[in-house]
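User: Design a sequence. Structure:
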C-alpha cells in the first residue's frame, strides 16, 4: 500500500506531480511520501494495540533526519546498530529511553556514547561484549539494561544475504549456549538482564518462522524466570516483508493475530524493530534517461542512477518496479542500466517498461528502505538527494 499513483498518466506522490519535482531537483533523487510512512507505522501500532509494544523503527533502513523526526513525533522508538545512528536519532529529537542497540561489533566508544545517553537497552550478541559493557558501566557508575540477542537457529525463506537467525551466522548468542552465558551475566554487577531479543532476517513474508522462534524464546524465558532473572521484555526484531513484485506478505494484522495469543497473560512486554515495512514502499528513486542505446538486438535504457544510488538489484538481484513519470500506452523490452563501470550495474534485464525517450524520467518503486542508506560515491558520483512529499507540497530534506 502506498500513495504513489497515476493521475491523467502522470505519476503523483500524494498530491505532488513527480515530474514537477524532477524538473526542479537534480536527479537522481529519492522521493518519500510522508503519508505512506505514517500509514505503515500506524498499521503496526493498531495491529498490536492490545499489547502496546515499543515500536523501534530500524534506523539502518533509512536514517534521513526528517524521517526520523517524523517518526519520533509519532511516538516511535529506534533500533540502532551503531553509535552514529544514535547520534542521528538524538539530533532528530529521539528519546534515548526508547532506543535499543544491537550489533556484533559495538566498540567501547559506541557503548560509552549509549551508556551516557541512557539508552533503553543493549541487545548483546557475545560474552565479551557483555563483559566490556559491565566494565564500562562500572567506570561510569551506571547500570546497563540488556537483552541477550538469541540466535535461534531458524531459517526463514528469504535472500541468503539477509538471513540472520541461522546457527552459522555471526549474529547473537546461540540458543544452544545461552545457559553458559547466564552464569557470566550473573557475575556482572552492572548488567541487568531484562529481556531476550531475536531477529531472524529481513523481507520475511510468512509468519511461521516467527511463531517457531517465539515458542523457543518463551521456553527460554520460563527457564530464566525460574532461575530468577527478571525477564520483562521480548524483542521480536524486524523483518516484515513488503510487496516489491508478486510477494504476498503477511499483513501486520495477520502477524499480530498469530503473535499476541502466544504472549497474552505472560506478563511480557513486546518490542519490535520494523524498518522495511515502514519505509520500503514509502520511497521511490527518480532518475533521468541519459541515453537510449541500441546494440545488436537489445535496447539499453541508460539512466543517471547507478548501483551507487540503489545497490539492491546489484547486491541481491532485488526487483524494483520501474514506472515512467509520464505514462504512455506503448511499452518496450529493455535492460535498464546505470552509468557505473561494472556489468552488475543493472537495474532490470529484459524488462517490459513504459516507453520513454532520452531526457525523460523513470521511477524505481519501493526504494525507501535500504536505498539511500546504502548509497555510495563509487566512481566519484555524488549521493542522490532526498525529497519529502507531504500533501501538495514537496521539499528537499
Ligand atoms: N533489527 C535488526 C537487528 C536488524 O538487523 C534489522 C535488519 C532490522 C531490525 C530491520 O529489519 P527490516 O524490518 O527492515 O527487515 N540491506 C538489505 C536488508 C538488511 C537487513 C539488515 N537487518 C536489503 O536491502 O534487503
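Assistant: Done.
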Amino acid at each position: 500500500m502506498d500513495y504513489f499513483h497515476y493521475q491523467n498518466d502522470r505519476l503523483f506522490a500524494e498530491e505532488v506531480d513527480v515530474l514537477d519535482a524532477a524538473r526542479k531537483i537534480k536527479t537522481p533523487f529519492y522521493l518519500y511520501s510522508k503519508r505512506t510512512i505514517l500509514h505503515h507505522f500506524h498499521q503496526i501500532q493498531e495491529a498490536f494495540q492490545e499489547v502496546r509494544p515499543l515500536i523501534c523503527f530500524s534506523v539502518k533502513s533509512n536514517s534521513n533526519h526528517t524521517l526520523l523526526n517524523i517518526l519520533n513525533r509519532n511516538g516511535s522508538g529506534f533500533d540502532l546498530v551503531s553509535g552514529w545512528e544514535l547520534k542521528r536519532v538524538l539530533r532528530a529529537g529521539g528519546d534515548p529511553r526508547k532506543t535499543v542497540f544491537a550489533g556484533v561489533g559495538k566498540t567501547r566508544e559506541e557503548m560509552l556514547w549509549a551508556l551516557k545517553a541512557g539508552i533503553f537497552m543493549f541487545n548483546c550478541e557475545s560474552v565479551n561484549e557483555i563483559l566490556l559493557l559491565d566494565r564500562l558501566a562500572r567506570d561510569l557508575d551506571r547500570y546497563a539494561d540488556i537483552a541477550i540477542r538469541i540466535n535461534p537457529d531458524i531459517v526463514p525463506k528469504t535472500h541468503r544475504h539477509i538471513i540472520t537467525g541461522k546457527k552459522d551466522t555471526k549474529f547473537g548468542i546461540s540458543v544452544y549456549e545461552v545457559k553458559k552465558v547466564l552464569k557470566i551475566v550473573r557475575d556482572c554487577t552492572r548488567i541487568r538482564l531484562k529481556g531476550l531479543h531475536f531477529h531472524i532476517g529481513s523481507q520475511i513474508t510468512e509468519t511461521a518462522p516467527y511463531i517457531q522462534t517465539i515458542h523457543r524464546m518463551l521456553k527460554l524465558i520460563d527457564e530464566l524466570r525460574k532461575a530468577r532473572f527478571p525477564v520483562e521484555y521480548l524483542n521480536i526484531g524486524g523483518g516484515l516483508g513488503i510487496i516489491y513484485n508478486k510477494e504476498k506478505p503477511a499483513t501486520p494484522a495477520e502477524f499480530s493475530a498469530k503473535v499476541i495469543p502466544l504472549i497474552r497473560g505472560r506478563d511480557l512486554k513486546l518490542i519490535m524493530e520494523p524498518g522495511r515495512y515502514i519505509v520500503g514502499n514509502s520511497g521511490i528513486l527518480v532518475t533521468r534517461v541519459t541515453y537510449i542505446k541500441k546494440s545488436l538486438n537489445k535496447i539499453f535504457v541508460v539512466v543517471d542512477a547507478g548501483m551507487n544510488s540503489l545497490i539492491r538489484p546489484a547486491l541481491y538481484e532485488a526487483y524494483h518496479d520501474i514506472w515512467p513519470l509520464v505514462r504512455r500506452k506503448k511499452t518496450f523490452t529493455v535492460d535498464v542500466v546505470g552509468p557505473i563501470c561494472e556489468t552488475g550495474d543493472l537495474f532490470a534485464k529484459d524488462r517490459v517498461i513504459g516507453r520513454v525517450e532520452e531526457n525523460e524520467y523513470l521511477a524505481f518503486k519501493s526504494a525507501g528502505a535500504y536505498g539511500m542508506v546504502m548509497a555510495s560515491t563509487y566512481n566519484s558520483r555524488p549521493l542522490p538527494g532526498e525529497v519529502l512529499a507531504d500533501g501538495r507540497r514537496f521539499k528537499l530534506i
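Residues 58, 60-61, 79, 102, 162, 164, 199, 202-203, 237-240, 273-277, 312, 316, 369-370 surround LLP (CB under 6 Å). The first strand starts at residue 4 and ends at 7.
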